[in-house]
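User: ok so my PI wants both of these folded by tonight, can you help

Assistant: No problem, let's get them done. Here's the first:
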Amino acid sequence: MILELDCGNSLIKWRVLAQDEAGVVAAGVADSAEQLLSALVAVPALALRHSRMVSVRSDEETAHLVALLAERFGVSACSACAEVSLGGVRNGYEDYRRLGLDRWLALVGAYHQARGACLVIDLGTAVTSDFVAADGGHLGGFICPGMPLMRNQLRTHTRRIRYDDAAAEEALHSLTPGRSTVEAVERGCSLMLRGFVQTQLEMAQEYWGADFQTFLTGGDAALVEGMLPDARVVPDLIFVGLAIACPLS
């Protein structure tokens, strides 16, 4: 079996693949290395042979997790690293080492699936977009706050904005003008998100006309999926790129 890890700033996304990489045996999200180990131990008939990971955490945190996996399961984790080029994609940053590894692997994974020009939008805590030309040249991208950051900033800096997550979810059932604070905030943030996505789409059309594919990934992809009916929603896009960065043979 193969363990794949996406170690973000706050959460660790994981999945276990069958040895032939033909299917997902188990998957989940953990908020710590210790919780990850507990979840893995609970996987029936777990027999790890390989592990690969992408981490945006500190070197110390990443090394600690690698050591825990080696001690508990006897696997040595292959960690993706910054590269000038990978899978036919040329890193477009002036300093290639400064492009976030999660973004890098997502756009590599998208190009691998598109085999042509693509727009990659990741809707998580932050929202990122990246443009990859048909020849694999990464043209760069954008970063802006996602729904969690916009919501939390308003809650933090505006004293009278207070509501729970259940109310937030209910408010997003419509995008008509809000008639309560929670509706006004949630729908306003959602419209800002949709406006950003629409701008990215228009830019991609200026570059390539209709000859490109759009990829959506991240936890809030569903918020904009309806406005992009031709987009490919790939929740595990980073893992597609990770397999290219850390092949098993």
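One down. Here's the second:
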Amino acid sequence: MTVQGSSILVLGGARSGKSRFAEGLATGSGLDRHYVATGRAYDDEMRERIAKHRADRGEGWTTHEEPVELADLLRRIDGPGRVVLVDCLTLWVTNLMMAEDDVAMRSAELVEAVTGLSSRLVLVSNEVGLGIVPENRMAREFRDHAGRLHQLVAQHAAEVYFIAAGLPLKMKG
């Protein structure tokens, strides 16, 4: 169990069980639970995914939707006695890239915000660097941005987990 004010990074592939694991960490903390959703519902399939995530999570969560201004939101909702789950960082990176925002600057801002929070923080993200080199420039830039962000967050996190087939591997902490 981590102390309040520390952060946990949960990485894994698509459908690896990382969100379920992260939600279990948050629920098991006994703290007031806040869920930060970074996804945008651009189409019916994404709306269905968001609805399923919300239903699977169940009651007892305060939900915040923020696709871009993540560091600012985390500072606004910060407080002792809270656990904040962010799902997910790779969707956040996608949103920044689509807005032609400075991903490196925003990543540094996020890490600065994370290190100053009193809330326990659980950050979920897709590990995208284990596959083949993407064939197009934007996909390669996305992979690179996500990889650099994961390294920054992991450096400052108290704990880091990698989830595969629903099984957690503790990498740090």
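The chain has one domain: 7-172. Helices lie at 18-28, 44-57, 70-77, 89-98, 103-115, 137-156. Good luck tonight!
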